[in-house]
């Protein structure tokens, strides 16, 4: 009877942990989407909302940390279960960083002047859409323990990097031709860099999900051999 109670309590803790990770990932995804919308429209209210909600993401990370430590200390999980708890602990830290990047973009959104003059403003939303899909897909992969979807997220990062390279070249050329716009162009470059980092972090989460699901690491060499 005591064994059944322990197993039930452990399952409840794991379910709670997964739920917190899912909530945190959802907030991080929304932060990116709304920060980009604020950038495009120059919507200060939307940007301020993103900045304010970052505290919720931080609070969720702290709650996940406490729960994961408690599970390890009290439930002594092994094998697959231990990998999942450790992965959740690491993923929470990465999602907190993604939330920070969304906050950074929201802050930059209000510093861009004459936004209609910048061609990269047509490229950054497309880049951010891919990065947002990566965050969404990697959270789906975590919930389903799906290593195949996790691998697809890793591949998608190449598209984000290609966008960043294109935007970087475009903005440098724009700054050289329009010295008066250097400040705003630099803010857009900062935005693009933050989106690129979100893609990198989604890739990191995908690698953790892959490990939690399979017990093996998804290295570049292994990925090429399997893909």
Automatic annotation (TrEMBL):
Gene3D superfamilies: Phosphate transport system protein phou homolog 2, domain 2
Location(s) in or outside the cell: Cytoplasm
Key words, A-Z: Cytoplasm, Phosphate transport, Transport
Coiled-coil residue windows: none
One Pfam family, short name: PhoU
Sequence ranges assigned to domain PhoU in this UniProt record: 21-108, 126-209
Function: Plays a role in the regulation of phosphate uptake.
NCBIfam families: phoU_full
Stated name of the protein: Phosphate-specific transport system accessory protein PhoU
């Amino acid at each position: 009877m005591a064994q059944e109670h322990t197993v039930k309590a452990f399952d409840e803790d794991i379910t709670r942990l997964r739920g917190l990770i899912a909530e945190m990932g959802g907030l991080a995804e929304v932060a990116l989407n709304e920060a980009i919308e604020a950038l495009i429209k120059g919507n200060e209210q939307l940007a301020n909302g993103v900045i304010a909600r970052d505290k919720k993401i931080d609070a969720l990370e702290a709650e996940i940390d406490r729960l994961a430590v408690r599970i390890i200390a009290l439930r002594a999980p092994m094998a697959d279960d231990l990998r999942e708890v450790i992965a959740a602990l690491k993923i929470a830290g990465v999602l907190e960083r993604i939330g920070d990047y969304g906050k950074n973009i929201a802050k930059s959104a209000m510093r861009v002047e004459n936004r209609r003059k910048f061609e990269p403003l047509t490229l950054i939303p497309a880049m951010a859409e891919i990065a947002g899909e990566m965050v969404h897909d990697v959270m789906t992969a975590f919930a389903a323990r799906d290593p195949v979807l996790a691998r697809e997220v890793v591949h998608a990062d190449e598209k984000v990097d290609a966008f960043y390279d294109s935007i970087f070249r475009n903005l440098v050329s724009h700054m050289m031709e329009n010295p008066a716009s250097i400040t705003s162009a630099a803010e857009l470059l900062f935005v693009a860099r933050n989106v690129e980092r979100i893609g990198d972090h989604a890739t990191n989460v995908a690698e953790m999900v892959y490990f939690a699901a399979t017990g093996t690491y998804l290295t570049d060499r292994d990925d090429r051999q399997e893909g």
